[in-house]
Fold:
Amino acid sequence: MDFANIGFMISVWILPIIIAVTIHEAAHGWVAWRLGDRTAYMLGRVTFNPVKHIDPFGTLIMPGLMLLISGGKMMFGYAKPVPIDMRNFRHIRRDMVLVAAAGPGSNILLAVLSALAFYALPLLPQEVDVWVAHNLANSIRINIILCVFNLIPLPPLDGGRIAVGILPRPLAMRLASLERYGMLILLGMIFLVPYVGGLFGYNLNILWWLVGIPAEFLTELIIQSVGITG
Structure:
C-alpha cells in the first residue's frame, strides 16, 4: 500500500469537500436570514467556519471511505442541516424555494471560480502547482455533484423543497409527506437497488442516471465555457 499516494489523494479531496459543504450550508442560512428568519444566524450557522457545518461522519469519514474504496469514482455524504423556521418568512413558499436554491447555486458559483482559478496556476511555485491543480479539479467535480445531487426532487434534499414550493398545493403536500422517508429512499437508490439489480444481471445504477450523467454534462459545459483544456 502506497501511503504517500493515499495521503496525497486524501489531501486533495478533503479541502474541496469541506469548502463545498461549508459554502453550501452557509448560503442556505444567509438567504434565510436576509428573508427574515434569524434562526440559523442566531445559532452561528451563517459563517464560513466549517466546524459549524461539518458532520464528522457524514462530511469526512463516509465520503473519504467511499472515495478510497471506489478509487475516487464514488462519493456520498452530508452536512449538518441548517435550521430554518418558515414561519418567519413573509412569503413562505417563495422564500422556501429561494433558501433551498441558494445551496446548489453556491456550488455552481464555486465550480466556476475553481475553473477560472486554473489560469493562476502558472504564478505558483512548481512545488505546489500540481497539488493545487488537483484541488481545483476536484473542487469542480465535487461542487457539481453536490449541486446536481441536491436538486433531486425528493425531500429533504434542496430539489425536494424547491418542488414543494412550486408545485400545486395538493401535489406539494403529497411530496412533502415523503420527507420522513427521504433519506431511506436515497440510501435505497444508492446502495440497495444497484445491488439487487446486479444479482439479476441488470445495471440499476439510478444515482448515475440522475446525478452522474447530468454532472458530467454540466462539468464539461463549465470547462468549455471557461476555456480550460485538458
Notes: The chain is about 70% helix and 0% strand. The chain has a mean pLDDT of 88.
